[in-house]
From TrEMBL:
Gene3D superfamilies: Homing endonucleases. Signal peptide: none annotated. This is Homing endonuclease LAGLIDADG domain-containing protein. Residues 8-180 form the Homing endonuclease LAGLIDADG domain. SUPFAM superfamilies: Homing endonucleases.
Amino acid sequence: MKLTKEQRAILTGTLLGDAFLQKTGKRNARLRLEHGAAQKEYLFWKAGEFSRLFQGKPVFVERVHPVTKRTYQYWRQQSNATPELGKWRKLFYPDGKKHIPPTLPDLLNQPIALAVWYMDDGYYYPKDHNSYLYLGRVAKEEAEIAAQAISRNFGVHARIYDKKQKGFALYFSPSETQKLHSIIRKHMLPLFQYKLSAVATQMSP
């Protein structure tokens, strides 16, 4: 199947974020989505954007951590396996591990792609008026690719921070946060409004 331009953008954002592409055979892959119980609406929205891929029903899962004994609740849904997703897996999992591909500037070129990535892995700190986009345990070179893609395509400039155990993150200063949020705001689900800064109000003369 061929993905639409918007589907490609949403897929890019979610692969950069929380999604996983599972290899099935030599050419195919399936997309697996997992989100916490409180983000059920988000998982349903994602799956709905790929209605031809996701034909089954989401599954509610409870898992007890073997060490902490805490119970984790989340929703999971897996797509059909297709050669198209197999091609995307080669981009993002060239050696079986997730990477930020060198071609990201060509993939991350629509606001909705950036919004989905931010809904997955972005954080806003109201006290300091800044934002972070957590990249996980990627190489420094991959973090630089991510920063360059956002800068080139959206004119938003980030600094790369090494968050040690959390891996690399992109830091957006208060002024860059305002630019970032203005670009992605209309694509953010109501569930994630807490990740956005307040809209500046215009004072009447």
